[in-house]
Amino acid sequence: MHGQQLLQEIEVLPPELQKQVSDFVIFLRKQQQQQFIQKRTVGEYKETIVIHDDFDEPLADDFWLGGQ
User: Fold this and answer.
1) How confident is residue 8, by pLDDT bands cut at 50, 70 and 90?
2) What is the mean pLDDT of residues 46-58?
3) CA dihedral defined by 6, 9, 10, 14, rounded to 10 degrees?
4) Mean per-residue pLDDT for 23-49?
5) Are 68 and 62 in contact (CB under 8 A)?
6) Rounded to an integer, what distance in angstroms lies between the CA atom of residue 26 and that of residue 22?
7) Given a cut of 70, is residue 68 above it in pLDDT?
8) How many CA atoms lie within 13 A of 9 on its CB side?
9) What is the pTM for the complete model shown?
């Protein structure tokens, strides 16, 4: 359906149905955005995150006591 024709169809609806159409369009857009956000690829963050060799070592007392 062409955009202008769709607008004409919506305009002849009573206000409460126009609100339902608006709510549905908002729902569809949010759903589309979530699908876009959820698409990830393997290795997407490769070489952007660094885990140091001493990652599992205990932290120094200075760290916990607010020292430098």
Assistant:
1) very high
2) 90
3) -170
4) 85
5) yes
6) 6
7) no
8) 7
9) 0.49
Q: For residues 59 and 62, give the distance between their C-alpha atoms in angstroms, rounded to a whole number.
A: 8
Distance, CA of 18 to CA of 12 (rounded, Å): 9
Residue with tokens 């607008």: 7
Distance, CA of 2 to CA of 18 (rounded, Å): 18
The one-letter code for the residue type at 16 is E
The CA-to-CA distance between both ends of the chain, in Å, stands at 64
Number of H helices, E strands in the chain: 3, 0
> How is residue 48 annotated by DSSP?
T
Which three-class secondary structure state does DSSP give residue 30? helix
Mind listing the pLDDT tens digit for each residue in 56-67?
999 888 888 987
